[in-house]
Specification:
137 residues; mainly alpha; 0% strand
């Protein structure tokens, strides 16, 4: 695989994470704890693969400039700003949410997951949006 394929791979990994997060939410609402656990650990793996791929790509390529102008440029940078700030916070937030679940502290896990899930989903979805705006517009 060439380096130029990594942005698309990253978008696929982000979309996969978003789909797995949604599935995990549905499963826990249905009371299917074991399936929820497997799916959420898969979402974690997908996000970890994304982060690794993202860092490798940008270590070699550097930053990529957005070429759009006018209103779309404002929209892009607004999404990018919120995505970036939340992407930095989601890594430790996921860690402090997953660890109590693995230790069987579901009360703590549940409280944290109510914050972590929407933030993680937002970061995953906006990652795909950023890819589309940066590489496909």
């Amino acid at each position: 695989m060439t380096l130029s394929a990594l942005p698309a791979v990253n978008a696929i990994l982000n979309a996969t994470s978003a789909a797995l997060l949604t599935t995990g939410y549905v499963l826990i609402r249905q009371g299917r704890r074991d399936a929820h656990r497997r799916v959420m650990l898969s979402a974690l793996a997908s996000s970890a693969l994304f982060l690794t791929s993202y860092l490798v790509y940008h270590a070699h390529v550097g930053s990529v400039r957005f070429q759009g102008t006018g209103t779309v440029r404002t929209v892009y940078f607004t999404i990018l700003l919120t995505h970036t700030v939340l992407a930095v916070t989601i890594v430790p937030l996921v860690a402090v949410t997953v660890v109590p679940a693995l230790r069987g502290r579901f009360d703590r896990h549940r409280r944290l997951a109510r914050i972590t899930l929407p933030v993680w989903a937002y970061v995953s979805v906006t990652g795909v949006v950023i890819y589309l705006m940066l590489y496909r517009m």
